[in-house]
Amino acid sequence: MSKYLLNKFLYTVDRDPELVERYRADPRGTVAWWEAERANAILNCHAGEHSTWLGFDDSEREALASHDYPALFALGAHPFLTLTLFIGLFERDYEEPLGFQLEYARKLSGFSLPYPDITT
Amino acid sequence: MASVAAVIASTHHPFYLRASTATGADRPPFADEWVAKISAFRETLTRARPDLLVMVGSDHFHQLWLDNMPQFLVGKAPSYDANYYNEEREFGLPRMLLRGHEELSAYLLREGIDAGFDLAFSNELRVDHSITCPLITLRPEADLPIVPIYTNIFAPPMPQPRRFVELGKAIRKLVEAWPSDLRVAIIGTGHLSLELGGPRQFGPHGPDPEFDRKAVEWIASSDVSSALAEVTLDSLWEPGNATHGFMDFLLMMGVAGENVKAGYTDSLDLFHTMEAYFTWYPEEPS
Q: Which residue in B27, B85, B243 has the most chain A C-beta atoms within 10 A of its own C-beta, making it the best mutation to test that interface?
C-alpha cells in the first residue's frame, strides 16, 4: 500500500494541463502509462536518475482508473490533492457554482471521524 | 535596529480576487461586504508604512513535495515568481513576480539556526496563494520586498503547535534585533476550521463554528496558553481536516506576543470558512 504513490500520481497529473485532460478522457490508460513511465521518476532529481521499487496495489490502481474519489479518500490519499485535481477534471460539467464540490461532499458523507490516516 | 511596524494575521481565501472583481449576475451576494472589510483591513497595513514584508504561509504541494519536505523554510532569493497553473485554473489567480530581500533572509536564517531552529532554505522559490492572497488583500500593488517563510501545516508528521508559537516569538525577536532602520511588517495567514476534500467541505459556514468562535477569541487576545491547552496535532483533525492551518495563527500569536491584544479585529462568516483579520501595532501601547 502506497499512499505516497497515490499522492504522487495526483500531484504530477494536477500540475500538467495536458495530463489533466488525458486523465479525464482516458483514466485507465493514463494510470497504466503513468505507472509504467512516471511512477519511479524522482521529482526533485535530474532526469537521469530514478527509483526502481514504486508501484500501485490493485485497489489503488483501480481507484485511480475509475476516478473513484471516495475510494481514494478511504485509501488515505491526501484530500487536498484529490480535491484540487478532481475540481480541475469535473467542475466544468456542473452548471451551478460549487455544484461538483457539493456532490463530492455528499459522496463522502458516509465517512465520520476519525477519517482515514493520511500520514505518509 | 529595525522596527516591527505591524503584525498581521489573517485567513487566506483564494476566492477573494474572483469574488471581489465579479460583476452582474456573477457577483456573489456577499462580495460588497467582503470588499468593505478587506478595504478596512488593508488600511491597517497601509498606515503602518512598512518598507518590507516578512510573509508566513504554507506551500500547498506546489514546489515542496513529499520526497523532500521541510518543516520550516525561509526563502532567500532576489525575486520570487508567484502562483501556479492550478491556482490560475481554479481561482483565477494571476502570475506575479515579487521582489525579495536577501539581506533579511540571510539574517533570519543564520540567527534562526543559531537560536535552535534548523531552518531549511530555498534560493529559487515559487510562492503560492498562501503568500499572494494576503498581498492581494493587504498590498495589491505588491511593491514591497518580501521574505517568505513556509511552514508545514499540510503533510504529517508536522511540528507541534507549541513549536509554531516558539518560532513566531523567535522571528519577532530577531527582526527587532536586525541592524537596519527599515520598518518591517510581519504578516502570516492560516485557517480557522476548514475541510478540504472531505464530507464537511463547502457548507454554508465553516465546518466548526464553535471552534472558530474560540479561535477568534484566542487570536484577538493572543491567548497562547488557552489555545495550546486545547489544541493538539490530533485534536486539529476534529474541527475540519485542513484545520492544522490554525498553527500559522499560533505562530503569529507568538510574533504578536503572549496576551497582547490585537489593535484591530474583524471577521466574516462566509460559506465554507470563516474569515478573520487581526492587526497588532507593536509601536503603540495596546
A: B85
